[in-house]
Design a protein that fits this description.
CATH topology of the domain at 67-323: Hypothetical protein af1432
Strand content: 5-15%
Strand order of the largest sheet: 8-7-6-5-9-10
Order of helices and strands: EEEHEHHHHHHHHHHHHHHEEEHEEE
Helix content: 25-40%
Largest sheet: 6 strands, antiparallel
CATH class of the domain at 67-323: Mainly Alpha
Structural class: alpha+beta
CATH superfamily of the domain at 67-323: Hypothetical protein af1432
Distance between the termini: 43 Å
Shape: globular
């Protein structure tokens, strides 16, 4: 399997994962095994499908990182969110069948738990065409994946609860789905201004957290509702909404912020960084929903930048690095010596030094090779942790040489049970 940008798709390539309909995410548009032709490629491009999973005879083992059942649940959740948000935008009245959404989130969570090897964020739902809906589902999936990695941390941070309840991330996923619902209560002009400027000082935009909380209060569980309200709180106290105290109004800081809100904050910042990372396309006529997300490595490097990372719980940042590969398996990359490879294994402790399988300059020809074609040479695998003189310089058509980041030692990105540098009281 190989992740192929739609612009690289060629007739004769066979799909290794289903493609869902852009406006009806629960409907499969093209099934696994479909052989692409020029008409299908043109149609997918017109529908703003950004990438495809293509069968590659030498990369079949990449499929272990793909959970088709989880992707199906993810697509169904996207369809439900799209329907709800479309209805809400027209009526401004919330009619939320909470048990239905809870059941869908639980099903998705079960699929993620069943297949830990494939419990990675390596593919968003191409089928969800609206940015807000796509962002909401992405954040929900990211938050649950992070929560599963942080089970002992959740127990530590929620000491008032029994351990089995403390580490349950179902309500975290539900909060992710609805965290930006208040955006639909803003004027269209305010939303467009936010998409173009991303000015977090804008008071009208800031009001979306209170508006969203009012909409879900009494509907969602208290922990989920609180996370909706506080997902823009920041570790250093620079977030919102402000709370009153003897020292005057200020944002919450450190462990005074509920751990759900801290996880959502990191997931939210990362997914927005993927979208904001495509700045080079803003000058084009392509609408925002048709601009492809920047590669994970660019978004992760922005999250790790000091001006951003100091605002996020450091434990949640490490969890993010363990579920969102800088270079996801199946991604085509170009190395600094000009050679081409496909990522076949990733290493969370060295996110930008994966193992790549060399595919040669004619790798595109192999994507249309018959299943029974024999290859005379076994492909070479290269572990970039042992070839430090090389680095990845291009992926998905992006120059990424300035975005790679490397561990200082084996503990730099280790996901151990860390105790954050905060003496503030824990939120239950």
């Amino acid at each position: 399997m190989l992740r192929v940008p739609i612009k690289m798709a060629k007739p004769g390539m066979k799909l290794a994962a289903a493609v869902h309909h852009p406006h009806r995410p629960d409907q499969v548009l093209l099934r696994i095994g479909f052989e692409l032709d020029e008409k299908a490629i043109e149609r997918l491009s017109d529908m703003a499908v950004a990438e495809l999973w293509i069968h590659h005879p030498q990369l079949a083992f990449v499929s272990r990182y793909i959970n088709p059942h989880a992707l199906t649940c993810q697509a169904k959740l996207g369809a439900m969110v799209t329907q709800l948000f479309d209805s809400l935008e027209m009526t401004k009245h919330l009619q939320l069948e909470y048990p239905v959404y809870r059941s869908m989130v639980r099903n998705l969570l079960d699929k993620l738990i069943e297949d830990p090897k494939a419990a990675l964020f390596i593919q968003e739902i191409n089928a969800v065409s609206q940015p807000l809906m796509r962002h909401s589902v992405n954040v929900a999936v990211l938050a649950m994946l992070m929560g599963l990695k942080l089970d002992s941390y959740l127990v530590d941070q929620r000491r008032r609860l029994p351990a089995n309840r403390a580490k349950c991330v179902e309500n975290l996923g539900i909060a992710g789905v609805f965290h930006d619902m208040g955006m639909l209560q803003l004027s269209r002009e305010a939303r467009e201004r936010w998409r173009e400027e991303h000015d977090e000082r804008n008071e009208e935009w800031r009001s979306h957290v209170q508006l969203g909380h009012e909409m879900v209060q009494g509907v969602l569980e208290p922990s989920a509702g609180s996370a909706v309200l506080h997902h823009h709180q920041r570790w250093d106290g620079s977030g919102f909404p402000e709370v009153d105290s003897e020292d005057g109004p200020h944002g919450l800081a450190g462990e005074k912020i509920h751990v759900y809100s801290r996880i959502l904050a990191t997931a939210d910042v990362f997914d927005r960084a993927r979208r904001e990372g495509n700045e080079r396309l803003k000058a084009t006529s392509a609408p925002q929903e048709e601009r492809p997300a920047a590669p994970n490595v660019i978004a992760l490097s922005r999250v790790l930048a000091p001006e951003v990372s100091r605002r996020l719980d450091p434990v949640t940042i490490r969890a993010l690095l363990h579920i969102a590969p800088a270079y996801p398996p199946g991604t085509v990359v170009t190395l600094s010596d000009g050679s081409h490879g496909a990522v076949c294994e990733w290493h969370p402790l060295e996110p930008c030094r994966p193992t790549v399988q060399m595919v040669g300059d004619d790798f595109e020809k192999n994507l249309t090779a018959p299943d029974n074609e024999r290859f005379d040479e076994e492909p070479d695998c290269m572990d970039l942790r042992r070839r430090t003189e090389l680095e990845i310089v291009e992926t998905e058509g992006w120059d990424v040489r300035n975005f790679n980041f490397y561990a200082e030692d084996e503990t730099t990105f280790a996901l151990t049970h860390m105790q954050p540098e905060s003496q503030t009281e824990k939120a239950a």
